[in-house]
Structure formats: C-alpha cells, structure tokens
Amino acid sequence: MAHPVVEFTSASSWAMIEDKFSDFGKETLAKLVQFVKDEVLPAERVAHAQIPTDPEQRWKVVIPVVQDLKVKAKKLGLWNLFLSKAHYPKYGVPLSNLEYAVMAEVLGRGGQMASEAVNCSAPDTGNMEVLARYGSPEQQKKWLEPLLNGEIRSAFSMTERFVSSSDATNIRTSIRQEGDEIVINGHKWWISGAGDPRCALHLVLGKSDPNNSDKYQQQSIVIVPSNAPGVKIVRPMKVFGYDDAPEGHCEVIYDNVRVPLSNLVLGWGKGFEIIQGRLGPGRIHHCMRSIGAAQMALDLMIQRVTDPSRKTFGKYLYQHGTVVADIAKSTAEIEGARLLVLSAAQQIDKFQAKGAMREIAIAKFVVPSMALQVVDRAIQAFGAEGVSQDQPISYAWAGLRTLRLADGPDAVHIQQVGQRELKRAPALTRRAAEIREKEKKLVEKYGLKGHL
Amino acid sequence: MAHPVVEFTSASSWAMIEDKFSDFGKETLAKLVQFVKDEVLPAERVAHAQIPTDPEQRWKVVIPVVQDLKVKAKKLGLWNLFLSKAHYPKYGVPLSNLEYAVMAEVLGRGGQMASEAVNCSAPDTGNMEVLARYGSPEQQKKWLEPLLNGEIRSAFSMTERFVSSSDATNIRTSIRQEGDEIVINGHKWWISGAGDPRCALHLVLGKSDPNNSDKYQQQSIVIVPSNAPGVKIVRPMKVFGYDDAPEGHCEVIYDNVRVPLSNLVLGWGKGFEIIQGRLGPGRIHHCMRSIGAAQMALDLMIQRVTDPSRKTFGKYLYQHGTVVADIAKSTAEIEGARLLVLSAAQQIDKFQAKGAMREIAIAKFVVPSMALQVVDRAIQAFGAEGVSQDQPISYAWAGLRTLRLADGPDAVHIQQVGQRELKRAPALTRRAAEIREKEKKLVEKYGLKGHL
Amino acid sequence: MAHPVVEFTSASSWAMIEDKFSDFGKETLAKLVQFVKDEVLPAERVAHAQIPTDPEQRWKVVIPVVQDLKVKAKKLGLWNLFLSKAHYPKYGVPLSNLEYAVMAEVLGRGGQMASEAVNCSAPDTGNMEVLARYGSPEQQKKWLEPLLNGEIRSAFSMTERFVSSSDATNIRTSIRQEGDEIVINGHKWWISGAGDPRCALHLVLGKSDPNNSDKYQQQSIVIVPSNAPGVKIVRPMKVFGYDDAPEGHCEVIYDNVRVPLSNLVLGWGKGFEIIQGRLGPGRIHHCMRSIGAAQMALDLMIQRVTDPSRKTFGKYLYQHGTVVADIAKSTAEIEGARLLVLSAAQQIDKFQAKGAMREIAIAKFVVPSMALQVVDRAIQAFGAEGVSQDQPISYAWAGLRTLRLADGPDAVHIQQVGQRELKRAPALTRRAAEIREKEKKLVEKYGLKGHL
Amino acid sequence: MAHPVVEFTSASSWAMIEDKFSDFGKETLAKLVQFVKDEVLPAERVAHAQIPTDPEQRWKVVIPVVQDLKVKAKKLGLWNLFLSKAHYPKYGVPLSNLEYAVMAEVLGRGGQMASEAVNCSAPDTGNMEVLARYGSPEQQKKWLEPLLNGEIRSAFSMTERFVSSSDATNIRTSIRQEGDEIVINGHKWWISGAGDPRCALHLVLGKSDPNNSDKYQQQSIVIVPSNAPGVKIVRPMKVFGYDDAPEGHCEVIYDNVRVPLSNLVLGWGKGFEIIQGRLGPGRIHHCMRSIGAAQMALDLMIQRVTDPSRKTFGKYLYQHGTVVADIAKSTAEIEGARLLVLSAAQQIDKFQAKGAMREIAIAKFVVPSMALQVVDRAIQAFGAEGVSQDQPISYAWAGLRTLRLADGPDAVHIQQVGQRELKRAPALTRRAAEIREKEKKLVEKYGLKGHL
C-alpha cells in the first residue's frame, strides 16, 4: 500500500526517496500526515480568528488552538523533527535532513502554525541549532531546553535598518565588553518573532572588534533576554499589509542593553562563523515548506476550476482559456522544484551543508519564484476572492515573496551558483584540448587534412 | 523647451502625441504636473498617517490633507479631467481621451489620493459617466452634480459573492417593482468605496426580469442611497492584508431595500447596456495610472541602486548581478506599454470605445502584468524594505494585482483579442489564394513546373 | 571515489540514484563514459567531414568513422543498451530504464552519432522494441536480428502529408489484403532514416479497416522492405536548412507496394496498440539525450565566457551583463529537468510505461523547452559563431526544436498532464469537506461562532 | 477610406502616425503595398526555386525573377526608399525615417528579396549611406552611383575571426600605406553579400594606426574591389544550415591586397566615426522588417489554426490548448514592438540618430526577441512542417535569430539603456529631496510629528 504521504506529495518523487527512509522516518511521516490532516488544517482559520483585531491586543495573545495542538503533537512524538541526531547527538531526533524535508513539505500546507505545532518554526529552529552546537552548558540549560520544550520562543537579530546588512561587514550594532558585562547598542529591524509575548531571548549579532583586519572576525553574537532594560520594540514591519501578529517582524532598538559576559555565544569574533552555519539547512526548510504551499495552492485551484457553482457562460472554469495548461505547468514546476530540494537535502545528509552549497543555492533561488508563480495562477483562478482574507493563498503569496529576499536575496544565490560553475572552466578546457588532440589523429587517419 | 510632462514620462512617447494636444490640453497638463509635484507627492505619506489605525475609526475619517488638496485642485481648474466634452457636452471638460490618458499617467505616480484630489477617482468616474449619459434630469441634479462637485462619493455594486458574476447572467440580486417602489435583495462584495463616510449612493445591478429570453435584457440598475434601510455593510474585503480604508471594498447585503421608482436608471432591462458602456474608457484610465505607478517604481529603484549608503561588498547595488539589465527591461516594457495605451486612447477618440475594443483589450491584459513585473523588480532592489509599509511599492503592487482581475480577468481580454484576430482568417486565406494564383503564372513563365 | 559519470552529469543527481544501479549498470556506465570521451567526441567533426557536400552523394555514404566506432563499441559490450532485459527477456540487456536514462544523457553529448555507435539510435530503437515484442519468429529472424546486430537500419512510417496525423484517425494510407499479399498506398513524410543507404525496412502504419466502429481498431502496421517496387523517396525534409544526411527525414510515397501477408505485424487492426506501446520509453530517451545536449552547450558556454582571447573592453565575457546569471539559471534548469527525467525512468521501471504516463508527459513538455533555452543562451555567448557550422550548438538547437513537435506536440502533453490533475478534484473536494467538518467542531469548542 | 497599408499593419498604429506622412509618403506607401502583394509575394518561392542546389553553382546565379522585380520597382519609383533626402540632400528621396519605417515593415513580409527588389537591402543600404555621406566625388561616381542604380552590390567587412570584434579595439586587420598604395591584410568572416557574383566592392575596416593613444582613432576604412588580387573568399558561413546563397555571409582573407590611396574613405583614423554613423538607422530598418516578418508569421498561424483540413479529434486547431491565447499575446507583442520602432524612427527624424540612441537601443533588444517568439509560436502551430523548407517561418526564424547578435548583441543594447537610465539618478534624488522638504512642512502643519 502506498505511504499516506503520497496524498500530499507525488507518487514519483516518493518513489525516488522511499528507500532512503528508515522505518522510524516512515512511521513518523505517516503520523505527521495524519496530524496535519486531522488536527492542523481544521485549526487554520480558527487560529486566525483567535488573533484579536485590536492593534494593541494582537501582540499579547498566545493562540489557544495552537497551544492545544502543541500538546497533542508532543504527545505523538511529533516534536523538534528538524533537529537531526546525526548532527546534534545530544538533543536531536533520529531523522535525516531528507526525511525532515518531506515532513517540512507536509507542514508547508498548513502555514506557520503547522510548524509551530510541532516546535519546528523559524526562527526558533535556527536558534536551537546555534545553541545546540555552540552554546555553553549553562546557555543550553537556561535557553535551549525551554526552547526545545516549546515553553519559550526566540528571535534572531541580524538585519539592520539604514544599511545593507546582507553584507555582514556593514553591520553597525556595537557589542563591547565593560567589566564583566557586555553592552549592546544597535538599531535592527525585521526581527521575526520579537513581537511574541513568549519571546524570551534575542540572539543579537553586532560588531565587537570593528577594526579587526579579518573582516569575518569583527562580529560576535550575544544572548539578550527580551525583557532586559533598553530592549525597545519600535513597531512591527508589515509585509504587504500583513503584520504577522503575534510574532511579527519588529523594528528593535538596543539602547545600552547590558548582559552578563556569560551570554556571549561561542567566543569573541565568532559571529560570522555562527551565522554561516545557521543559514544552510534552514534555507532548505523554507524551500520545502514552500513546495507544500505551492501544492496547497494548486490543489485549491483544481477544486475551484472544477466547481460547478463557478461556471461562466455555461462552462466550467477549467474549460476556459489556458487554465488546464496553467495547471499542467504548475504540476511540472512543483515536481521539478521538489526533486531539487530533496536532492539538496540528501546532499546535506551526505556532505554536510558545506558540501551541499551548490544544491542549497539552486533550491534557494528556484523554489520561491516557482511557488510564487503557482500561487499567483491560483489567485487568478479564484478571482478577487484570491487576493482576499477568505483564501489562504493571498497570505501565502506575501510570505513566499519575502523568501526571495530573506537569507540572501535571489541575486546572491544566483551569482554564487554561476561563479561556482565558472570554476569548472579549466577542467572543461583541458578535456576539450584532449579531444582536439585525438581528433587530429583521426583527421590524419582518415586523410581529412584541410576538411575541418 | 520641452513640456514639463517629459520629466514624468518619456520624451519619445511625448513626441509621438504632442501634436494631438490642444493648447488647453498642454496647459492643463503642465499645471497638473506642477500640482502633483508640489502638492500631491509631498502629501502622500501624510495622508496615510492621517488614517487612524483603530479598526473602527479607520472607516470614519475624511482625510484632511486630501480635502485640502481638492480645494486647491478645483481652484486650479484641475477637476473632472476624465469627462471628455466630446462625449459629454453638458458636463465635460474640453479634453480628449488621449489628453486625459497622459494626465492619468501623471496621477498614477501619486496613488489613489492623486486621482481623488482632482475628482477623477474610481468608482466615481464611471458612475458620473453613467449618470451623465443615462441619468434623468432629476437623478443628475440630485446625484451627479454633488459628485461632479466632489461633495459626495459613490459605489458601483455589481460583483456578487458565491457566484461568478463576471458572467452577468449569473447575477442573483433581485430588483423588482412593488407599487411605486423598487425592492432590492442581494449579496454583493468588492463594492469599492462603500466604506467611505461620504459615500452617498450605490448604483446597484440586479435582475429585474430573470426569465427574459434575451439574457442581456434581464438586468437593471437602480440608485440606492447608502443610508437606505436594509443596506448593510458586512465587512471590508482585504487585498493582501490591506483594507484600503476609508474607501474599502466592502461586502454589502441589500435586505429588502426600498427606493422610489424614479431611482431606476435609463429603464427596465437596461443594466447590461449600461455596464458595457461604463467599462471601456475606465479600463484605459486604470492602465494609464498603472504606467505611472510602474514608472514611479522604476524611478525609486534607480535611486536605490545608485545610493552610496547601500553599497555591499564595496560595490553599488547596480554593479551587482542583473540590476542594470532589469532596469533596461523595465524601461523598455514601460515604454512599449505606454505607447499601447496612448494608441488605445487615441482610438477611443477616433472611433468611440466600441471601435477601440481591440486596443482596450490589449492594454487591459498587457499593462497590469507589465507594471507588476516592474514593481516586483523594484521591490527586489529594495530588499525587505520593499515589501513593507515604508515604501509605496508594496502597496502599489497589491493594487496592481487586483487589476488583473477587476473589470474582467486577463483571460477574458486575451480570449477576446485572440478571437477577434481569428476573424481575419477568411481575408488572409483569400489573399493567400490570390498570391498562389499569381505564383502559378510565374512558375509557368520561368519554366519551373515541378520545382515548387 | 566518485563514479566517472559525475564529470558528465551532476554529483547530486548521481547521489539520488546511485543505489538504484546494479554493479553491471555501474560498470557499463563507466565504460560508456570512457568510450564517449575517448572515441566518440573526437570523431564528431570527423564524421561531419566525411559526409559529401554534393546533394546527391550525401545520401549514399556510410560514414567510415561511425562504422569503426560501432565495431569498437560492440567489442566493449556497449551495444543495444536501451533494450531492458526486464521487458525483453530474449533480446534485452540487464539494464533498467533508469540505468539507460543516465547512459542516454552521456550519449546526448555526442549527437546522433554517439547513439548510432552503440546501436541505440532512433528510429531503430523503437522498431526493435516493436519487433521484439510483437514480431513473429520469422519477422524477428529476418529483420530484428540484423537490426540488433547493427547490420541494417530501419524507418518508422507514420506521419502523413496534408493531414494532421497526430490524430491517428486522420491517417489516410491504405493497407489492404489482396489474396496472400498486402497492398499499401499512401503519402508520408518526415520518415526519419528513410534516406540511409542501409535502411532495409519501413514499418508502415495505415488504415486496414477504415469503417471499423472502434476507431482504434482501424489501423495496421506492415513491414515494407525499402527496396520493394513502389517505394518512392520523394525528397528529404529539411530542419532549419539541415537535411540530416545520410539518414534524413524523407517524404515517401507508397504506390501500390505489395508485400507478403506474413509482413503484417501482430495482426489486423493492431496498429494503434503497437504505436501506443512504442512511444512511451522512447520519449524519455529523447529527453535524456536532450539533457546531455543542454549540458554540453552549457559546458561550451562556460569555456567561451572564460576564454581570455574573447575579452572585450578589458573584461572577460562572463564579467559583462547577465552572463553569470544565465549560467546559474541554466545550471538550475538542467538539474531540475534531469531529476524529472530520472524520476520518470524510475517510474517506468516500477510501473511500466503505462504507470508512468504522468511523469513521461511532464518530461516531454519540460525538457525540450528547457534545453532549447539553455542552448540559446550558449549561442548568444558565442556570438555569430554560435549559429554557424563551427559550433555544434546551432545543429543541436535545430534538433531539439523538433522535439517540441515530434511524438506529440507540447500542447498534447500539457493537456494530458492538466486533465490528469483535474481528476484529483473529487478526492480534494472530499478532503476539504472533512476538514470543514472538523473545523466546525473547533469553532464550537472555542466559542467562535460567527467569527469565521 | 482606410489606407491600403492597414491590411499589412494595424489600424491603430497607422492612426498614430498618419498625420506625420506627407502626401508623397502616403502615395509611395500605397504603391509599395500593391507591389509587394502583386509582385513580390507571388515571386518568393519562385526565387528560391531559381537558386541551384549544386554547392558551387549556387554562388554564381543572379536570380531571374528578382532581376525582373527590380526593373518593375524602379519604373514605379519604388527605389532607394531608405535614403532620406533630409539627411542626404543630393541622392536621397523625400521620405522621412518614419515613413520608411512603415515601408520596411511592408518589405519585411517578403524576406530579403523584397528589400532587394526596391534596392533597399543590407549591406548595400549602409554602404550607400557611408559613400553618400563620406565618399569623395570620385568614389561616389565610381561606386555609389552603380549601387544606387542597383547595378552592382557590395559588402561591409568588419567582423573578424578569432577575436571579439564587437569591441572595435580588438580589430587585427592591418591597413597601411605603402607609397601611393594601401596594403590590406586581415581575416574576416560573416561578410554578408561577399558571395554574390555582383558584389563589386568591400568596405574594409582595419587598423591603420594601432598605437594611437586615442583608441577610436586607430581604425580606417578603405574600398577594396572584390576582384582585387589577394581577396580570397574562404567559405560561406552557415546560419543554422542555411548558406543564404547567392549572397552569403563569407569568411574572407585579405592577403596583401593593394588598392590606390584614393580608396581611403573620409581619411586616416576615421574608421570608428564612420561605423558609428552607419549603424544607427540601419538597426531600425532591421527592426521594422522584423515586425513585418512577425506579422507574416502570425497571419500564417491564423490561417493554419482555422484550416478545416487540419482538424484533430473533431476540433479546429484553434480550439485546442492555448492557441487563442498565443495568438492574442503575439498580437499584443507585435503591436507594442511596432509602436516602439515607429517612435524610434520619429526620434531619428527629430533629433538624428544620436538623439535617438535610447529608442534605437530599446528597439534593437526588444524587437528581434519578440519576433522570434511570435515566429516560434507559428512554427509550433504548423507542426513539423513549420521547421521545414515548405514554410517561410523556419527561414525567417533563423534570420531573426542572427539579429540578436548582429550590430551588437542584445547585451550591449540592454546595458546601454540601463546605464543611460542610471544617469537620471541625480535628478530623481533631487526631486525626492524637494518632496521630502515639502512633506516636512505638511507634517508640521497637520501636527503629525513622530507619525511618519
């Protein structure tokens, strides 16, 4: 019998990877599919309804239905699935990146909430990885374990206002030691999760040694409790009108914030090293969730265009114009992108994130654009309703659009892949020369001098 | 000396049409450019700041700065520019559609507010055209004149919830006579402007004769005062997170609403005829404003990528990746689309909307997609800021996206243009046959039998 | 150590499938890579030089270097690799479709000649499959065995002039029994291989029972010796100026051709059944070769843009404009398409061609367009030389372009995939209804009535 | 009554420019339309049949039907239409660039032959412009007048093998004075027209002063009689399989060719100046012909998809898949591109080629890609026949593809437009600053400090 995940992905992509799944992986995946179908998807609109509309109150709520989902998920063992035991022996679960990739696709059908329900939502995931890998035992006890338990949430504070902080050397936030304290001053924005009432800590990137001749040693990361004096949430940034409450993406000012020395992560000057490690697999998580979002949008589109109550001029919507072709193209694009992400996940399993940089970068620039296109076609099929609050695709679109900017804009990944390809030039040129040498002999052998 | 509009459009497109402008047209255009630059653009963010954030209060405000702009504009004679005297001798201004098209592009740089400042904003424009063309003297006095004066606003109530009302035969709203009254029952949504405190009337389309064998005679339009008992504003529809307060696009229920017989427009069964006439030139207005929005986005992008404070890795943004190519493509796409719209406007002037259906339909499906693409590139250049409330391009994108759905989705216009082209087949086939006949003679003349 | 194929494909796609290869598969693949590098690629331009330019003589040559390659390949066991033992127990080689798919990519780097060298070139491959599956023992002995030995070649004669024969019911060629003979009359074109001096047989599709009420029982296929009286090669059809001599794609008239009854394949009325079976896996072969062609073009492009002798204005070509981005996009597109084809090949292995129709159709419409785009970018990088006889990419482009038309135009495959997706609608609608049911309970539980 | 050109272009684009045509322009255009319809189009396939297939003989023919067309055209006054009197008072005809642009579109429907029939074919047109503008009276008498009379033909010899000669500083051909002679040594290719038996002269660009510190003063141009000793036609370059006989695009070696000093054009070091002037308007000619080719392809596509004999599965081709949408998009793309070229032509008329560089560059990178896309859709509609010698669209495609490379590849024009746009940055930034200033005052006026 086919694995239940087939209903949520494609039989052929599953066939490509099924034998790379452990029994535990298959069972967990089956449970997750059931959980998403039975518990998460029915709760989606309920959760939105539980967020107050009042511009102040929206930021103070812990959504009841999501809290209840978390309890259920934990009981089912659907928890922290992103944290691969192979890479995090102490805290991890015995799942490979490939196995989690498929789970992330399943989660992607249910929006942010689905990931939160199984304690796999950004930015907590990356922060837990940082603390699991680089945190001191004390830091792990104080911050990592409550995060792993889903009791608190966290923010990652890197992006700065007024500069292009995608070049980390442009960072202006200052982190300096004063006695046995660290003092932080800086102006950040787009700090996801900082609005959440449960957010207990910010991992803050800043410059601790701005004059270091090695510009990748200038940065450090410190843990800042979100209730530390001087942490000011200025406002939520909006994404096409959405404020993403209660989590939000906030503008935050750190105004002479003081934390103990023990809150430094890994060591002085290690900030760049930490963010490099943090971003790799996380990009794949985003990508795989985006595949799920795209598939969800296509599924909705198929329902809409076959809905008899939507006929116009005596025909089903699918009988008009280019609808069938749009569906076919979306199918093919999702399928191709899905295989690319699975392939990247498998590379990470085999060669770590470092050995999968090409595949990660490809997925990073291919998948969000693909998903946006698929969702946009679905929007078009739904008419005005497609851009409204009555369908999840408008919100999905906005979220996907930010993925073309977050964790490095498309152009960065495109350039990286292109430059890497250019490095193949010497080997290619060498091979071409060898072939020309052999060709010469054939030219002689067949008496063709002057004919080529 | 070059006309001041050149700064806001392109010298070469202006050169194509300059000699089609009257002196009055040129002067008015020059005044408008000045007004937009000096008054409207500085007021744009001010206006947004004057809309309350409270979800109730947002719908009760008349934005002070916009009110002040209206007073100034009217004094300057920049008023009702859309209403061409050639088509509306009594109420119109002596401007052609082509002349207004260029003005609409200029207005398009300043968002919805710019159009409102000169009393040229939808849906009032279309409604004023309807009342000017089809209204009774009484209706004109009571409703049209205050609209023309900018004292009240209005809504056009056509789209229905739960059905595909782009096929007007699917309309379910009932309009029936009872004594000397008309009774209206129906469930509409996406009724733009219905949220505005100044909205005084809805033009409501419904079925008055649902069994008429001619399905284009089944519909009628009546004027419904927005304060009539039974008019219920259910909620604002959102466009990707935006509610577009205070105007909004509302869900509205008409529950046994009663209006006097004299509120019927033009006559029983004339609804379809009225909407046909209403939609033509209005589409061009949207298109031309979209050109302005796209040009605004490109201008912002150019500023951003040349901003020295945005350098990364030692280079200006424009020195990275495909930015220059993106700017070049945007330039070319705007220019081509602009000429298409100008050409459509000129067709309307020459042959009425009916004789310009091909050009209007082409503009309608080309322009919004083009503008979305240009704005999307600008968003990408701005990074996360591009999707936020800090730049007008995110809001512009959302508005443009609805234009691929409003007044007929893209597919309708594409099919219309394609079907119209297919009608050229007989003439083409005839010409091909004539050419083959002449070819035969040449074959004979040159002794080439059997060679073709 | 990495398998040598990695040099010709990508490490990550190889990692996805390596464990699906048998030892024999891996060894054969390694030998093939070596053979293509050492023998085929050096012979490519030599082979072209050995084709006479005289318009008559071009069709009489057996290319010496290709003949020599065939001898070598056979000796190495690189022979008939396409014929999977699993499907053809008597004549096949122990390779899966997936294994052959990778080999076909390798062969695709060397054009038509590479495939011929290992006796894997169309249309012989499909014809051998037909004869191996449906041929009588006598037919197999007389025609299949010499084909398997590479002693003769063959043509598949289906497409007709003047009608749209992609709809097989439009076929006009008549095949009728007269005593113990079959008489064939018809006008075909685009009969690939019919120009080759070694072409010994045509498999001809025609109507044997045009009035049969089941329109898929009207057709039959007969073996026509190419030297039978009445077989007239009218002319070679050209593909963008190329005549593809000596094989060609010929216009052929069958004028009262008579063959013995024993030349009927499978039985009367079995024509449609045979072509259905013939086309499936062959489409994947084409696709996989196209991946190889695209990768070859990209490799050439990388060499060109890094060539110091091609600098302009002091910069390498790759430092201009969008070259690096074009390379990155090509890389990603090849990679995604490659995974799609591998996935389709694996589906065929698991579920036969019938169970892989979705994946085959996706590959069929995605791959040729992708490859054309990649090759086109390479052409652009080469300047005018790119469209000329001095680079293989111009010829590759023309060949790839025909693949969007051959074996069903893109539109057929797109519609098929789209329609198949629409069949998921009832299951999707059912699931949505279940979710709504569960949602209702949650609404009740959390007291949210009226809020959704 | 509508002007007859409307049949060959669009009514709306004609409406945009009609009032810019002189009476002479309108009459000439009407005659040209008639001539193309009655004489040129019927002769198209005849001309191809009159070119021998023998690879030697193909280069020795003067096509009889084209010669006859030339006689007729000259008699009708349809001659040298490209040479605007405004710019070439002595030799020109009283037509503007805009007027000729429309004529070039009409000519573009008939391929290369149509232009030759009215003595408006490249590279003669550019060469005549050079000689008319820069030639000495002696040069004009000897070379220009026979060219203007259509008695001889010519070549422009710039592109070099082995280097990227799009950067003119890479040119290696040597031009040096020896006594009263000039000695030329160089290796060129893609020399269009050099294969023609009537080709009497080459304008050869080379380096006369390779060490000049001003690198745009290093080049000179000389007239080389094609029968001068040392002029060696090596081979025709092919464009996707086509050799374009009898004109061809030849590889040419100049081996110690000697010409009198009087063959120097304009003066030593003037080579770069001459080619700059030569290329501007010519690019527009190509573009406008391409519009005609695209429209021709669309017209053929419309005939094909409405042809009852091409029905499949009971439906016309246009009733399948995305055909109608493809036609609509092609229509819109042609229309937009046409307006761009007309606008560029008008700019040239107003401000010379120099003042129209933006518009020329836009047209140059937009039009060929657009036309390729339209022609490619037509090919797809024709099935295999579309890529063959039986339809003009395959040949048109190949020719159009070279236009993305000739006279500067796309990337050069794209970069030029993008860089030019970037120059608007200071003005835009200034305007933005002014707006912010005014905004500040409004913020104060309305008491909004801290709200923006």
Describe the structure.
Chains A, B, C, D: It comes from Cristinia sonorae. The structure is a homotetramer of 452-residue chains. In chain A, helix 2 (23-49) crosses helix 5 (111-117). The longest helix of chain A is centred in the middle third of the chain and has 35 residues, at 271-305. Chain A has a four-stranded antiparallel β-sheet with strand order 2-3-7-6, with no helix packed on it. In chain A, strands 1-4-5 form a three-stranded mixed β-sheet. Chain A is an alpha+beta fold and 452 residues long. Chain A folds into three domains: 4-148, Acyl-CoA dehydrogenase/oxidase, N-terminal domain (Butyryl-Coa Dehydrogenase, subunit A, domain 1, Orthogonal Bundle), CATH 1.10.540.10; 153-265, Beta Barrel (Butyryl-CoA Dehydrogenase, subunit A, domain 2); 273-425, Up-down Bundle (Butyryl-CoA Dehydrogenase, subunit A, domain 3), CATH 1.20.140. Chain A has helices at residues 11-17, 23-49, 64-76, 97-108, 111-117, 124-134, 137-148, 271-305, 323-351, 357-382, 392-403, 410-422, 425-445; strands spanning 153-157, 174-178, 181-192, 199-207, 219-225, 231-237, 249-260.
